Amino acid sequence: MFGRGYGEAICAHLGGGSWVVVDSCLHPSTGRPAALAYLESLGVVAAESVVLVLVTHRDDDHIQGIAAVVDECRTASVACSAALGRKD
Fold this sequence. Notes:
Layout: E1 10-15, E2 18-22, H1 34-41, H2 46-49, E3 50-55, H3 60-63, H4 66-72, E4 77-80
Parallel strand pairs: 2-3, 3-4
Antiparallel strand pairs: 1-2
């Protein structure tokens, strides 16, 4: 888990080399999505190993950098919560 409150973004290893990324936050010193930096530090190629990117809601601390995550994880499915359609 990454982010100020430790939960703004999550990387979950599913086994067999498959990963899920939930939401996105930016690393404070690099400005890069924290999940991508973490996977890279493990030697994981996000473009090949991330099978799902899940966006739960649109609070800034959960979606900053999500476009970069989706772009880099180009073979992953992308799912968005119905909460993205609500204003509250």
